[in-house]
Amino acid sequence: MIEASVKNKIKFIVSVAILFLVCLLLKVDLSVAILLSTLFIYLKFSLKNEYSKTYSLLNLNFLFTVIFFISYFMIKSGVSSLWIPFCIIPMLSTILFNELRVSLLLSVAASFTIASISGNNFYLGLGFLISGIFSSILVFGARKRSVIIRAGVVTGIIQAMTLFIMQDFQLVHPQSYLILLANGIICSIIVLGSLPVFEYLFKTVTNISLLELTDSSHPLLQRMVMEAAGTYNHSLVVGNLSDAACQAVGANGLLARIGSYYHDIGKLSKPEYFSENQILVEDSKKHDTLKPTMSKLVIMNHVKEGVDLAKKYKLNPRIIEFIQEHHGNSLVYYFYRKALENLEEKEELNQEGFRYPGPKPKSKESAICLLADSVEAASRALKDPNPNSIEELVHKVINNKFIDGQLDECDLTLRDLEKIAAVFKRILSGIYHSRITYPDTKDDISKD
Ligand SMILES: [Fe+2]
Ligand SMILES: [Fe+2]
Hints:
about 450 residues; mainly alpha; Arp2/3 complex 21 kDa subunit ARPC3; Hypothetical protein af1432; 2 domains; 19 helices; disordered C terminus; binds fe (ii) ion
């Protein structure tokens, strides 16, 4: 068996060799291959450590190949290079990977390459680089479709202005400006139309799709309101906690919020077996007739049921990750302890049988959802919620999850955990703070 690191090295050497071969076959300047290889090395060894979860080099290569072949065939077939829809690549990479730096590097590579295949046209390359930079900045963090269209219009204007400046402020070919303006708008329309396809191909989710999932008329959220109101409210609080904590550590807050809204949809199949939905006294006795091993199965099954339901409603795979990972392989402690109490003599109990199947959270966002979920559930059981007891509880829950190894496969650092704890404490104190009791004398009422 070849080791993964050796395999990666072989893949890298083969990729660079293919790059040089393609340049030679298409008679493209070899400096393009040198530039691309350098950027490739930079992305692989530098950015990868920071943003390993948000993009893959394969996806970036695919985007680059798309613009390369579009440009190559347009230029070779004599179509004006002003019609090349260059901006679709920086716009798509910014929206899909939520990374400005990656999209800027892609713009540098693509503009240099297009300049080279159009006969070392320096001005064309510079013009595309400028529009690439601006279009990336304009769509960065976009949460609405209108922002993308507006970015297309502004990019079109910037492209036309760049040409005007390059022609020493003289209107040489007036129709060129209109082509560049139309080019920007067409690019934004192509980006909007192709986003769902790229989301599917790259297995990612954009802010725009995420916002569609916040709509409370979504059938799954509607079912939660009607059939499991306690779980729905719990999910909203977990969403608020996760969003704020993600923002504190530089993770994607919107993704964590939406993932949290849907993390417990599996409880819809048996909502009455979960404490947050047990309003009446008799509801809380649901587990009394069941053996701890059976109760554990009912509880643990909400993860599998959730994944099945999410697939049925065609939720994005990034959201399904939250359902699968929000308990990691934690112990169902309450029923494990109950089973221990009921243990007959000489009987043995396997702790592993009381653990969720996992996997453990892989992303910062789903790890924060796991912490927020546990902290929210534990805080509801607090008898006297006050800032001190909440702080103690938050630290205890996070420490326990850390020691239990639930955060082993995500990128959260100890400093991140401190920031997350501070956010949880602030928000939960806001929810549970005791209201100041006003004296209800007649005088005070009249003053109000
Ligand atoms: Fe859950
Ligand atoms: Fe939950």
